[in-house]
Amino acid sequence: MNGIISRDSIDVAFVGIGENGHLAFNDPPADFETEQPFIIVELDKACRQQQYGEGWFASLEDVPATAISMSIKQIMKSETIICTVPDERKARAVKHCFEGEVSPMHPASILREHAKAYVYLDEAAASLLS
User: What is the pLDDT of residue 43?
Assistant: First the structure.
């Protein structure tokens, strides 16, 4: 599948930011360098707790330890990126990603380097921004 996806461009990537600043399950420290379009990522405890807390799984033990995600470079190759971030529990991550340095420790911060990345925040998610 990596070969197929590498041959074609992606018009729109729909992504989210996690409570730990992850971008589409690329948890910190994210790999900003891999050329693989899709990667298997290890979900850290904070990410797994978020999935459980949002009600996606019946228990923390049910949350998988790994996920398949687009790599950071593949996301950044998309023509347009749409990112939605709801809720106050993500406010700290939003602040780090959009007011701190671009860093693998704050994976979603890389969105600041894309010309057509659109980030939609509700008031609660934006509440800590200057």
Answer: 86
